[in-house]
Design brief:
Distance between the termini: 34 Å
CATH architecture of the largest domain: 3-Layer(aba) Sandwich
Strand content: 15-25%
CATH superfamily of the largest domain: NAD(P)-binding Rossmann-like Domain
Number of domains: 2
Largest sheet: 7 strands, mixed
CATH topology of the largest domain: Rossmann fold
Bound molecules: nicotinamide-adenine-dinucleotide
Shape: globular
Radius of gyration: 21 Å
Oligomer: single chain
Length: 428
Amino acid sequence: MPASTPYSRFQDTLSAVLKELDLADGENDLFAEPQKTHKKDITITRDDGSKESYHAFRVQFNNARGPYKGGIRYHAEADEEEVKALAALMAIKTAVVGIPFGGAKGGVQVNPKELTKRELQAVSREYVRAFKDHLGPDIDCPAPDVNTTPTIMAWMRDEYEQLTNSYSPAMITGKPMSFGGSVGRDTATARGGFFILQELVSRDALDPDELKVVIQGFGNAGAHMAHFLHNAGYTVVGISDSQGGVYAEEGLDPVRIEKYKHKTGSVTGEYCEGSVCDIERMKLDNVRKVTNEELLTLPCDVLIPAALDNVITKENAKEIKARYVLELANGPTTPEADAILEKRDIMVIPDVLANAGGVTVSYFEWSQGRSGEQWTAEQVDERLRRVMLDAFTAVRRKARRQNMSFRHAAFAVGIERMLDAMRVRGWL
Ligand code: NAD
């Protein structure tokens, strides 16, 4: 059997959902491949005067519901298959939260850590030069992704405005606050997931004070989530990053974890220097060091993968103790693990719903860029809450009515909304 790829995994879920929907002949085929894949090699002059070229791509999956939307990643192993899968997931995600965008993703095969700041700027500007005819506020609006930052978004906007002799703040999102960014974009992914969890907990008549949470990853998504949950009364018992994790049955304080992460570069930094830990102090605080594998199977009510894809697998799905899995990361659960969790009645809130707060506030940024308005933090928070709860309600209703998992229901809601737009446009 050929090895699965990110795109084949997307297709597996898609085919399973399409079978459960009542579609006309030919409608399935609309989701088989992206509408457009643009590829170019971009060349920059390195600081030592040599020339270097990098493979770059922009995959535009579907724009039936509005301009293509999705991040650009810089990674030595960024490849077309992965970018294609992420573009497809973006199309489903924007439809699930009902914002007027399609789905896209971009990538450059480069290790940005090997570039100086000037070289990084050159790559970013060249990317826009390579794809400028396919980008624009009404065509395709990129955003940050792995290893791309607000500063990179600012360079890209500037390059686009120079090339097109225009004022186009809405051509890209995730910009710095001083250059057309939106308040609340930095916390949006976690905030959106938090609203969903709060709703779930309230509908299941549970009390946050009695719920234990484990979070894998302490970056943008994971760290903000830890703070929101801690402040709302949940007990965050496990936290990890790439160097390992800590577990405390009575709860960890995310503020302290953040402080030590900042100081030492690791969430274990309060107790450990590399692999050497102050065991006495850990005992005193009732804290124990755990590996990332162990972290996923710790006793808790809510497990939040917020780091990498494919971490919940058929090997560890049987050991997971949580009753809810909230996917802040993209693609953290393999299809085999998904089936095991479903059988075990563990509710998985899928990435296309759980982490859609980020793209939702990107939409708010795009709207502000077009209208010239500047919304307050309260306006962003309230509108995000409304969008996330509407999406949650639509997915939950679908899951109940058609007896589907939340993942299949979210895909079904997204696909049906995309098909509605395609029918109106006469594409079918
Ligand atoms: P980030 O780079 O800010 O943080 C990633 C975290 O994961 C870091 O703490 C890192 O140490 C940790 N990590 C790396 N390797 C690990 C490992 N092997 N085990 C455990 N932890 C590990 O990234 P982020 O923006 O927080 O994104 C995290 C996930 O959320 C990704 O899957 C991303 O695609 C998804 N996501 C993020 C956003 C967003 O707006 N930031 C939006 C949607 C989805």
